[in-house]
Amino acid sequence: LAEKKVLIVYAHQSAGSFSAAAKEAAVEVLKSKDCSVEVSDLYAMKFKATATAEDITGEVKNSEHFRYAEETKLAWDEGRLSADITEEQRKLQEADLIIFQFPMYWFTVPAILKGWFDRVLTLGFAYTKEKRYSNGIFKKTKALLSFTTGSQETMFSPTGINGDMNVTLWPLQNGILHYCGFQVLAPQIFWAPEDATPEGRSAMLAAWSTRLVWVWEVSHLCLWTAHIHSRN
């Protein structure tokens, strides 16, 4: 079997965080399974979060009415995207699985990770009008959200005060990842690790490690899209 390649897009500022521990656990387990693992540590990279004309080398087509999608499509066609974007696109194209590791901020991803989505998933490279969802460009690539919350699981239930977590994740899992064709795996949610005991946090990491041991063998059984469609 060919070596599997994994990209971890990591968005946390502290090496002492639970997110860091989850990222390190993933690296350890996946390497033990003979995967090659690459980590994009967005804060360490000082990754630019804003999608601007600076992402294009050379002249833009219409400076009077700058439209990011159209301008970056043209720049991608001509090899004029900025180096940090093309490097992330290279990593993404080579990956069989991409894991996004982050703390949930205001019911979504941190701004630096949203910037990664905005800037890396350019028109032409990641999607076109003809190639979206099940016919998407990345339909052979798996994607998985792995994140921490500040709230307990009961608060994110359909009757909880925060609402249904599936609704919260819909823009990320369907509107971004599945839109680009990714096979979206069920999310790995670490419920309020800050409130857990040391033993509880260790158990969370152990469950994550166990899941990753079998991620290639059973991932077809835990596609998030299949789960959502089965509920409707």
Automatic annotation (TrEMBL):
Gene3D superfamilies: 3.40.50.360
Record's keyword terms, sorted: Cytoplasm, FAD, Flavoprotein, Metal-binding, Oxidoreductase, Phosphoprotein, Zinc
Phosphoprotein among keywords: yes
Record's subcellular location: Cytoplasm
One Pfam short name: Flavodoxin_2
GO CC term (a single one): cytosol
GO molecular function, one term: NAD(P)H dehydrogenase (quinone) activity
Residue ranges of domain Flavodoxin-like fold in the record: 4-212
Enzyme class per UniProt: oxidoreductase
Catalytic activity: 1-(beta-D-ribofuranosyl)-1,4-dihydronicotinamide + a quinone + H(+) = beta-nicotinamide D-riboside + a quinol
InterPro entries membership: Flavodoxin_fold, Flavoprotein-like_sf, NAD(P)H_dehydrogenase_qn
Cofactor: Zn(2+); FAD
EC number: 1.10.5.1
Quaternary structure (record): Homodimer.
Function, as annotated: The enzyme apparently serves as a quinone reductase in connection with conjugation reactions of hydroquinones involved in detoxification pathways as well as in biosynthetic processes such as the vitamin K-dependent gamma-carboxylation of glutamate residues in prothrombin synthesis.
UniProt record similarity statement: Belongs to the NAD(P)H dehydrogenase (quinone) family.
Protein name, as recorded: Ribosyldihydronicotinamide dehydrogenase [quinone]
Upper lineage: Eukaryota, Metazoa, Chordata, Craniata, Vertebrata
